[in-house]
């Protein structure tokens, strides 16, 4: 089954062709990074306009790269939630038109489910159930993947997402957008123990997380250093911040793994590319004898292939959408 998959939830226009949920025939991306660097972050209105400009040609490119014609497409999958509403609407409207003109089913896909499904493309042997940590610019979730289309949130952030914190701290440090990647690179040169940063303890669900206090502490440290004209060891601050985020994510995810009785652990999302976090999970899973699945860096960020992978399993589960499909800025992964 060949699925044409569309992703436009933020600042990457992506169209891919995926066969049977596991094989990438093409994965074309039009990045807006250079444009948004001018503003230090994503400008939603500009992102939406650029999606409109890129998406039609990108779909033709995806078909050409896959060496397929329009007649070879069996279904169209699209991210319909969550994301920047204007950006998501561009992809949804394009996908609705494509499905209608091709006479094929339209499959709505939750963006976070897509990130999890990126692991299916990298690991053909991976099947649910397993635990997955999904960490991106807008989300931090510990998820029990009970089946390909059934998900239960075990823990989540109560305020900021881990990725948003990485980007904000990097921006204040003067790093180019996207800041999280730049911060991760510089962190490898620093002393992760030089700047002690707080670890928030929450009442209630022990698997929930909070990053706002950590972000504020890092920003205050930066501003205080500037006001006092003190030399800030930027690589060490980056390393210390990465360590603090890691120590929020990893123990909770391992606790969820052990409490659930699952034998497999996956990570997904843009922050899954962070070297400190990946290394910590590798160490813990080796200690526990647990199989760890980490997607390649090319599948950590937003891409169309992950939407095509999840779209296949949503299709098998009977999920379809009509021409009344709408976009949603927020929606739980459990709702789908």
Structural write-up:
The protein is an alpha/beta fold and 336 residues long. The chain is 44% helix and 18% strand. It has a five-stranded mixed sheet, with helices on both faces. Helix 9 (275-288) links the parallel strand 9 and strand 10. Helix 2 (44-66) runs parallel beside helix 3 (85-102), helix 5 (162-172) packs across helix 6 (179-187) and helix 6 packs across helix 8 (234-260). It is globular, with a radius of gyration of 20 Å. The two termini are 22 Å apart. The model has no long low-confidence stretch (mean pLDDT 95).
Report the β-strand fraction as a percent range: 15-25%
Helix content: 40-55%
Sequence of secondary-structure elements: EEEHHEHEHEEEHHHHEHEH
Strand order of the largest sheet: 3-2-1-4-5
Total helices: the number is 10
